[in-house]
Amino acid sequence: MRKNFCLLACCFTLLSSVCFAQNYRKGAKSSFSSSQWYFGLQLGTNYSQALPITSFSEFSYHPATVADTEKKYLKRFDNAEKHIGLTTTFSPFRQINLSLSGVYYNYSYGYDTDFSWQDEETPTHNLDLTFQHTHRLTYLEFPLMVQYNFFPDRRIKPHVQLGFFYGILLEGSKSVSESGIDYASGGTVTFQEPAFSTFITPLYRKYHMGYLYGGGLTYRAGTLTMRLDINHKTGLSNITNDETRFSGTRHILGFGNVQDDLKIKNLEISLSLLFPLKFLSKDFKPVVL
Amino acid sequence: MKKYILSLLLLISLVACEKKDETLNPGTSFTKIFDNPAFSGDIHPLSVVEIPDSGYLILAAKDTWNVYLLRTQENGDFTWELSLGEPYVNPLSGIIEKEGQWYIACMDEVTLGTYLLQIDLKGGTPAIAAYYPEITYPLSISNTPDRGLLLQGYDRTSRSTTLTKINKDFTMGWQHNYDILEDKEEQLINHLTRTGPYFPFFNGFTGTNGNTGYYFFNGYFNFTLSLVFVDASTREMLGNINGFREEGYINALHPMQDDFFALSRISFDDNYLLPKKEVNVREISFSGDFVSNRFPEISAHAKVVIKEKELISSSVVVYGTHSKNNQLLLYAYDKEEATLLGMEHIGQTNPYQMGDFIFTADGGLLVLSKTYLAKRFPRLALFKLTEEEVLEMVR
Q1: Which of B2, B7, B79, B379 to mutate to test the interface with A (most CBs of A within 10 A)?
Q2: What is the pLDDT of residue A21?
């Protein structure tokens, strides 16, 4: 909690400093016009991939060879989510930007767990079950990035960027649905049970962090600056809370709910609308580097 | 600019101060369901014990009454299983530890005599430590303070319950018969083969040594299921708590001090928990007269296990059983005040039935239970609760 407060205070200080920087000056060239601040809105979509570090299960199979105990994680582009936030950018030089954002970030990932039982006397009598697990996590994230602009004189400027992020977990939830085929009850019966949803925030660690890199394009349209970013994010920390791995899953319907230790990899596409905060005149002619 | 740089430095330092990942010992908390691909078969959990520093040993009855052993690692993972074939049937609840060795008792399928088997912790075939042809239809076993054993059986010839004292070298001590006065063999066969009602036979000793306490057994006596108190010297009955045929009886008992007991009783389909009940062991009473709150959530004829544990400088008595919707239930009572301190429900959505539970060396609690996978396949399941969860339950 104390750490959260410090982070928020830090961001508040940062944004305050940006707001106070809003000003205008007469005259063309001065130290005032050698840098620019931007403040704006960022939104976009992202695709997550869960990377298991160590697998865990509530099942122990014997003989051990009979079962496929692994969770089958969904591919990255099956896990689309959204993010939205505020961003501020400081351009101390024409080619360098420093960007800090506060983003309400949703991740999702999923996996399937399969089970099968067979009648020893009548091998055609099977029961196959699949549980589909979908997890959705919401973080407040603070990515800090350094951008390098190519061709700073052009209207459309490509850039590359590198940075790290720190996230505070706000909420975690999951839904489990069960489906299967019953060959053992007098025919072939396919069934699909309604999904069961529950909050699982305690199953995750409160914080996570990682690094990100990517590139994009910046386009200046009059006063407004638009920036398109494509970033690849890699979590560096295990997001699973091992203290609640088993105790927190006893109430959840279905099988395969025990969480693996895992990191999150993520591809994000963001569009930022940035407003300059330093102007050269009262008619809002911005400082252009 | 300075503010900006200062803020960035502050943020970076906060990130750098992120708590180092701490991992929980895998044996501290776990859930394990022991699955296999087979359709057929049934399993009935009986007992679980903690093998010091090396996991747990589970005893169960498989396919109604075959002896089944399963060994796990400290984190609950499967190590080995062993199903004993004929003639070993009808394993009794309780895994007995004597001088570092582990024993179970079971019945000879043909002679109906009693075996004491020494378990090989590596999964080998158990060795016969003793065989008692005089103890037929074994029903329960317990340790005695003098490191001997007490075995309860049924004598079909005299139609009586037998109580047999086994010495610490496994030789037979004394045996005493307690008349039932009618033939109960059919009910017992139905009980043993689980084709009829399953009764809570048990026995034990109330004191800390053979001179100050008395023996007791829960079984058939004088036509009905009764809790019988036995003089340790004369082996004669002191008094008893009569049940009502097979419909009302004491179904779990934990001796506390003097003539106080934590017990539970059943009356038809109703369950009653009495966490501190003074019983005059020298008189004949009726279990239906023991007034207590009814626990309508407890499943009819569910197994009830009572254990005592010293927690936070006071003793608690914990009842373990399961509910009508097949949740595992743990009720923790203050031993002195007999007040409910807390309860724990395990398995909200999947069905579980109580087999046994133990307090573990790390301060946690391990529950052995039976579950039904896909609503139809019976399997053994273990739940390991951490010490924090146990303490949370009694706060």
Answers
A1: B7
A2: 46
For B7, the closest of A14, A66, A254 (CB atoms) is A14
As a whole number, mean pLDDT of residues B296-302 equals: 93
Are the C-beta atoms of B148 and B130 separated by less than 8 Å? no
Phi, psi of B116 (to 5 degrees): -115, 115
* Cβ-defined contact of A184 to B39 (cutoff 8 Å): yes
**Tokens 């043909």, residue?**
B110
Pairwise CA distance, residues A260 & B126, whole Å:
37
Strand ranges for A119-155 from DSSP E: 126-149
The answer to whether position A178 is within a domain reads: yes
Q: Residue A13 in 3-state DSSP?
A: helix
What is the pLDDT, as a whole number, of residue B39?
85
> What b/e string do you get for B248-261 counting C-beta neighbours within 10 Å, with b at 16 or more?
bbbbbbbbbeeebb
Note whether residue A13 is domain-resident: no
CB A151 within 8 A of CB A157: yes
Strand runs labelled E in chain A: 23-24, 36-54, 59-61, 72-73, 80-91, 96-118, 126-149, 156-182, 189-192, 196-199, 207-221, 224-235, 261-276, 278-279
Asked if residue A28 belongs to a domain, the reply is no
* Disruptive mutation site among A247, A253, A259 for chain B (greatest number of B CBs within 10 Å): A247
| Nearest Cα residue to B1 out of A188, A254, A21 | A21
> Token pair of B27, please?
């044996």
Nearest chain B residue to A131, by CA: B374
- Of these ranges, A31-40, B42-51, B346-355, B386-395, the one predicted with the greatest mean pLDDT is B42-51
| Helical (H) or strand (E) element with B299 | none
Structural domain containing residue A98: 37-279
Q: What is the pLDDT of residue A82?
A: 95
In a domain, A255, yes or no: yes
Taking 70 as the threshold, does the pLDDT of residue B93 lie above it?
yes
ipTM score over 0.85, yes or no: no
Low-confidence ranges of chain A (pLDDT < 70): 1-34, 64-69, 278-285, 287-289
Q: How many CB pairs under 8 A join A and B?
A: 133
Looking at the structure of chain A, the number of domains it has is: 1
User: How many angstroms separate the CA atoms of A12 and A86, rounded?
Assistant: 12
B109, B138 Cβ separation under 8 angstroms: no
DSSP readout, B234-285? T--EEEEEE-BTTTEEEEEEEE-STTEEEEEEEETTEEEEEEEEE--TTSEE
Out of A63, A252, A258, whose CB is closest to B349?
Answer: A252
Residue B243 CA, distance from chain mean position:
21
* pLDDT of B18 strictly over 60: no
